[in-house]
Task: structure prediction
Amino acid sequence: MTATDDPFALQDSSLLRRQPYIDGQWQTGDGPALAVINPATGTRLGEVETLSAQAVARAISAAEAALPAWKALPARERAARLERWQELILEHLDDLARIMTLEQGKPLAEARGEIAYGASFAKWFAEEAVRAYGEIVPTPARDRRVLVLREAIGVCAAITPWNFPSAMIVRKSAPALAAGCTLVLKPAETTPFSALALAELAHRAALPAGVFNVVLGEPPAIGKVFSAHPAVRKLSFTGSTRTGRILLAQAAEQIQKVTLELGGNAPFIVFEDADFDAAIDGAIAAKFRNAGQVCVAVNRIFVHESLFARFTERFAARAAALKVGHGLDPDVQVGPLINEAALQRIRALLEDAETRGAKIITGGKSHKLGGLFFEPTVVTGAGPEARIWREEIFGPLVTVTSFRDEAEALRLANATEYGLASYFYTRELGRLFRVAEALQYGMIGVNVPFVSSECAPFGGVKASGIGREGSRHGIEEYLEIKAVWVAGM
Ligand code: ADP
Result:
């Protein structure tokens, strides 16, 4: 490939890696090569090498071998490596964002935001690494004490999705490594270049061999290797609830600890006392970011009946005005869907809604650009029996429904098996507390359409998952508690 037909055109071309990374080395694959496609153009960006199940097991052995020394390293030294990783990620932000937009499709500004967001977890958990304190507990017997130690759980496995191909990796790896664990990561097969670029930077940050490993290959086969291997003590997964169920069942085999960040079905409630303009802006941001392919994306908007007509009209006009296109074009706001299956699914959800009497207010069909581009779409009149109400949408499509009072809004919002993110807009203090306490969700945005930051716990309840990432709680997922009884004092 010559420089002119290199679609990546990176400042640092060695960020573009094509091989799995195990034990500090780039590995020759022993599985079939995997093509990586640009969803905006349908063209092939390149291919990566993949591994057989046996080779994946060798990665786990490498992580197992690296564990004792890494765990024994003073936390400050582990932290220094993580801080260096963060610095390197930020130094190469332009290249990393470009890789992401090309293989994932999201607008470049969003890709840049994701790289910085992801890097913030490396910094945050470098800071938390030195604060994994234990306790000394008094006991009923006078001559006894219990020392409570918090120790690295061991070798961790991580499986990450394509919608945030960089941030989800750092969000899992940084707390694991900070805690003293070693890790084997399987990134999504559609976005491997972002993962391998992070491995290249981890290598440059002098993470010791075997501490951070990236494997590529057939997802179910790798998932089985992860769950069957006795050295793997922890599995962290972000992805669909369907796959989460499979992995949770498999984790039973070795009784692995799990963190699962699964699907969502976020409600967005606009109360009659809301700041109307802020609610419109918030709903647009929380719906159409990453073309709606976000687990915390709004699925169902509920608007008080007094505002319903005005809200729907304004919101639909704003949605229709969003600029759809190739993520590298500077003013594009909505990129393509990830693949043909995603596009077909959006079509099927809409068709189902229409047969149940829903009305399309704007959008509803493929964008004039063709390919995987779909128009930002707003529908009304869909009820709980419609698939778009019940299922995670994962696309630029949303329903707007009116409600009469707070009780009805809460009943509708909670009527789902999911419980990840939710949003509501109000200016009444009492309602803020009442509604926040009544919503059955792990995260709630009140007058704000964002719920993701390294400083806040991220995670869901019900079918949306188990455990939390980020915040001081995030490191707990990678620590085990050990009680040491001391007598004869
Ligand atoms: P989506 O349908 O949005 O791609 P998935 O849950 O299928 O979401 O994918 C999230 C991640 O889980 C990806 O890295 C994918 O390769 C991986 N994955 C999918 N199925 C399995 C499986 N059976 N075992 C292990 N990993 C899997």
Notes: The pocket of adenosine-5'-diphosphate is lined by residues 159-161, 186, 188-189, 219-220, 222-223, 239-240, 243, 246-247 (CB under 6 Å). The mean pLDDT is 97. The chain has 14 helices and 20 strands. The longest strand covers residues 145-152.
